[in-house]
Every structure is written in structure tokens, then in C-alpha cells.
Design a protein that fits this description.
68 residues, mainly beta, six-stranded antiparallel β-sheet, 63% strand
């Protein structure tokens, strides 16, 4: 599957977007390494919430996204 991932300020990285390959395993969407070196995974949680993890330059950023 092809995905587009967008981000805001993330560590030393400015906002941007990248397209790449993704794979769904169970409830997890794992993206291939982005051009900026980031590894991204998103997990669908109950009631429409998504938990995201981005690892970039030895830093890990996490957050949740809730449908409004």
C-alpha cells in the first residue's frame, strides 16, 4: 500500500510530508523508513483512537489521535 505521512515540527525537522510504502499487520500500520530517516508506526485502538510512534535521530515521539 502507498501512504502519505505529514508532520509538524519534530525535533530538528521542519514540517513536511513524505510518500512511501506501508504494511498493515493486525491493527498496526508500519511505514517504510521515510526519506528523513524516520520510522513510523500507527496502531488503531478502540473507539476510533490511533496511537502513533515516530523514531527519528535516536529520539522517540509518541502521541494519540482521536476522531472528533
Amino acid at each position: 500500500m502507498t501512504v502519505t505521512f505529514a508532520w509538524g515540527n519534530l525535533g530538528d525537522n521542519n514540517p513536511g510530508e513524505a510518500a512511501g510504502a506501508g504494511k498493515i499487520l493486525g491493527r498496526t500500520l508500519k511505514l517504510g523508513r521515510l526519506p528523513n530517516g524516520a520510522d513510523v508506526s500507527l496502531v488503531m485502538l478502540p473507539e476510533g483512537t490511533v496511537a502513533g510512534t515516530v523514531t527519528l535521530a535516536d529520539q522517540t515521539y509518541t502521541g494519540t489521535f482521536t476522531k472528533q
